[in-house]
C-alpha cells in the first residue's frame, strides 16, 4: 500500500494569517471540495487542516500526531462524515478546544425531512465510506451541509441556497455527461475488483462482475475474461504491472477509478475542483476502456 507522507508545517496548519472569522474546517478531499463549492460568494471560510499529502486512511494517525496543532481561532464548525467513517475524527479533536464548535456530518441528515444517503456495504457489513462517488448521494450531502450552514450563518441564506441550486445543476450535468458517454459504447460492463467504487458503477448503471484482486493473477486473467465475457477490469488500487500487462495482452483494459481517498493536488493543497475532476476523469477513462 502506498505510504502517504505526513507534512505538518507550522505555517501551513491553521495559522492566524490563513484563517479568519466564520471558520469551517474539514479534513478530507470530498468534503473540502463540497464546502468550497457551497460557500462561494459568502464570508464563510472553508479550509482543510491537511494538504494534498494526507489520505483518508491516515487521518486519525495524522490528527493524533504531536505535530498537529489545533487552531487558536474560533472554529464555528467541522464538516465530516464521521457517522460512516470513524477515522474522520477532526471534530472530536477540535471540540476538545472549543465547546461551541458544531459538527456538520455530511453523511447523515439529523433532520427527518431530509433524504438519507444510499449506502453500500462491505463483506463485514460496514458502510463503504466513498459515498460521494454516487451522484445522488453527492446532491444529498450538499443539501445536508447547506442546511446546517444556513442555521449557522442566516445572513448568508440567499447565497447558500443559490449555490446549492447551482451545485445540484452541475451534478445533473455530470450525470448526463456520464450517461451519454456510456450509451455510446456497445457494452458498459466491467470486472470490479473493489467494493469502494460501487457507488459510481451503480449510479451510472454499469453492470459489474465481482472479483477480488487476489483472484486476478497472470495465470487467471484469460480464464476470468473467458468466463465473464468481459474485458475491462476496474478498481481503486493498482494491480501488479505483470498482471496489467497480461490483461492488455489478452485484449483487455485495466482502469483505476479515483475515489479521492488520496486528495488531488493543486500547489500543495487539496484541489477545490476535485469532485468535478474526479468524476470527469473516471467517466473518460472508463469510456476509453470500453471503446478499446
UniProtKB/TrEMBL annotation:
Pfam family, one: ZnuA
Keywords for this protein: Signal
Gene Ontology biological process terms, A to Z: metal ion transport
GO-annotated molecular function: metal ion binding
Gene3D superfamilies assigned: Nitrogenase molybdenum iron protein domain (3.40.50.1980)
InterPro entries on file: Bact_metal-bind_prot9, ZnuA-like
Signal peptide, first to last residue: 1-20
PANTHER family for the chain: HIGH-AFFINITY ZINC UPTAKE SYSTEM PROTEIN ZNUA-RELATED, METAL ABC TRANSPORTER SUBSTRATE-BINDING PROTEIN
Name of protein: Copper-binding protein
Record organism: Fusobacterium necrophorum subsp. funduliforme
Higher taxonomy: Bacteria, Fusobacteriati, Fusobacteriota, Fusobacteriia, Fusobacteriales
Amino acid at each position: 500500500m502506498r505510504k502517504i507522507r505526513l507534512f505538518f508545517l507550522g505555517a501551513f496548519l491553521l495559522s492566524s494569517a490563513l484563517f479568519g472569522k466564520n471558520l469551517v474546517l474539514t479534513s478530507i478531499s470530498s468534503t473540502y471540495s463540497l464546502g468550497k463549492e457551497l460557500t462561494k460568494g459568502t464570508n464563510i471560510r472553508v479550509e482543510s487542516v491537511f494538504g494534498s499529502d494526507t489520505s483518508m486512511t491516515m487521518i486519525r494517525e495524522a490528527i493524533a500526531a504531536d505535530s498537529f496543532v489545533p487552531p487558536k481561532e474560533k472554529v464555528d464548525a467541522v464538516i465530516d462524515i464521521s457517522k460512516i467513517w470513524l477515522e474522520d475524527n477532526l471534530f472530536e479533536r477540535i471540540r476538545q478546544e472549543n465547546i461551541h464548535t458544531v459538527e456538520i456530518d455530511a453523511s447523515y441528515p439529523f433532520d427527518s425531512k431530509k433524504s438519507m444517503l444510499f449506502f453500500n456495504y462491505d463483506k463485514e457489513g460496514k458502510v463503504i465510506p466513498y459515498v460521494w462517488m454516487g451522484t445522488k448521494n453527492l446532491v444529498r450531502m450538499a443539501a445536508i451541509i447547506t442546511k446546517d450552514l444556513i442555521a449557522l450563518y442566516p445572513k448568508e441564506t440567499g447565497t447558500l441556497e443559490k449555490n446549492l441550486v447551482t451545485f445540484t445543476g452541475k451534478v445533473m450535468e455530470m450525470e448526463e455527461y456520464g450517461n451519454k458517454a456510456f450509451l455510446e459504447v456497445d457494452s458498459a460492463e466491467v470486472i470490479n475488483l473493489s467494493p469502494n467504487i460501487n457507488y459510481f458503477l451503480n449510479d451510472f448503471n454499469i453492470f459489474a462482475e465481482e472479483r477480488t484482486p487476489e483472484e486476478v493473477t497472470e495465470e487467471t486473467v484469460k480464464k476470468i475474461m473467458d468466463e465473464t465475457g468481459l474485458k475491462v477490469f476496474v478498481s481503486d488500487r493498482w494491480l501488479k504491472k505483470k498482471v496489467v500487462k497480461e490483461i492488455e495482452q489478452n485484449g483487455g483494459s485495466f482502469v483505476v477509478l479515483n475515489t479521492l481517498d488520496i486528495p488531488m493536488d493543486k500547489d500543495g493543497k487539496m484541489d477545490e475542483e476535485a469532485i468535478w475532476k474526479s468524476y470527469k476523469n473516471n467517466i473518460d477513462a472508463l469510456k476509453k476502456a470500453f471503446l478499446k
